[in-house]
Amino acid sequence: MTRSIDYGTLMHRAMRTLIQNVLEDVAANGLPGAHHFFITFDTTHDGVEMADWLHARYPEEMTVVIQHWFENLTVTNEGFTITLNFGNQPEPMVIPFDAVRTFVDPSVEFGLRFETQDDLEEMEEDEEMDPAPEPPRTDAQVVSLDQFRK
C-alpha cells in the first residue's frame, strides 16, 4: 500500500489551529491595538447557527467583522460562538472552524484562505480549458564560478 503525506489537510488543520489560538486570546484579553477580523464562512455548513433572517439574507456565505462591538466570544476545538450587533440587534452565532473560508486581519495585512474541493476542481477545469504555454525545455548549463572570483 502506498502512503503519502496529505499536506493540504495538515495545512488546513494548522491554519484552523492558528485561528483558534488567536480567538482564544481575544476571548480572554480583548482585541489588542488596531487588530480586527473579517471572517467569511459557509452559512450552509453543518453546525452553523444563526438567526433565520440572517440566513435568509446570506443563504450561502457571510462575512462578519469582529472589531468594536462583540460579546460572549467562546472558543472550542470545533469552532466559536459570538454575539454580534446587526443594526442595534444583538445576534448570537455559532461558526465551526470547518465552515471558515477566509480569515483576515487587515490591521497587519494578514490573511488565510481555505481552498475547498470545489475551488480546486474549478482551478483544474480552468487549466484544462486554457492551458498556460509551457516554456521550451532546454539542456541544463553548467556555469563556472571561476570568472567571478577575484
Map the helices and strands:
Elements: H1 7-29, E1 37-42, H2 52-57, E2 61-66, E3 70-75, E4 79-85, E5 90-96, E6 100-105, E7 110-113, H3 117-129
Antiparallel strand pairs: 1-2, 1-6, 3-4, 4-5, 6-7
Keywords:
alpha+beta, globular, 3-stranded antiparallel beta sheet, 3 helices
A few lines on this structure:
The chain is α+β, with helices and mostly antiparallel strands and 150 residues long. The protein has helices at residues 7-29, 52-57, 117-129; strands at residues 37-42, 61-66, 70-75, 79-85, 90-96, 100-105, 110-113.
Strand content: 25-35%
Describe the strand arrangement of the main beta sheet, using strand numbers: 2-1-6-7
Main pleated-sheet profile:
4 strands, antiparallel
How many strand units? 7
Number of helices: 3
Q: Pick out the low-confidence regions.
A: 137-144
Secondary-structure element order, N to C: HEHEEEEEEH
Q: What is the residue-mean pLDDT, rounded to a whole number?
A: 83
Radius of gyration: 22 Å
Share in helix: 25-40%
Class computed from helices, strands and strand pairing: alpha+beta
Tell me, what's the shape? globular
Terminal Cα span = 55 Å
Characterize the structure shown.
The chain is an alpha+beta fold. It is 28% helix and 28% strand. It contains 3 helices and 7 strands; from the N terminus they run H-E-H-E-E-E-E-E-E-H. The strands form 2 sheets. A 4-stranded antiparallel beta sheet has the order 2-1-6-7, with no helix packed on it. The protein has a 3-stranded antiparallel beta sheet with strand order 3-4-5. A hairpin with a 3-residue loop joins strand 3 and strand 4. It is globular, with a radius of gyration of 22 Å. 15% of the residues are buried.
